[in-house]
Write a structure and sequence with these properties.
The mean pLDDT is 96. The protein is mostly helical. It starts with a helix and ends with a helix. It is built from 5 helices and no strands. It has a single domain, classed as Orthogonal Bundle (434 Repressor (Amino-terminal Domain)).
């Protein structure tokens, strides 16, 4: 069991063997923001609309279910 949403993201990414650099290159999201997501540091991100967009792009890139990931985020 993961301790928070950021840990969940990182766990899902590592399970699929996708490096952060690949997500950044594919999504054009700065790696600093991707790290903030995985560190559960949402205060370092530009806002709720961006966070949800980043999660969508992240999920698509690693091949995860977008809606499931967004629901887990909302519940966290």
């Amino acid at each position: 069991m993961v301790e928070n949403f950021g840990s969940y993201l990182k766990h899902e990414r590592e399970l699929r063997g996708v490096p952060l650099e690949e997500i950044s290159g594919t999504t054009k999201i700065h790696i600093r923001f991707l790290r903030a997501l995985e560190e559960n540091s949402f205060d370092e991100l530009p806002g709720e609309v961006f966070i949800k967009g980043y999660i969508r792009s992240y999920a698509n890139t690693i091949g995860s279910d977008v809606e499931e990931m967004l629901n887990i985020y909302k519940e966290s």
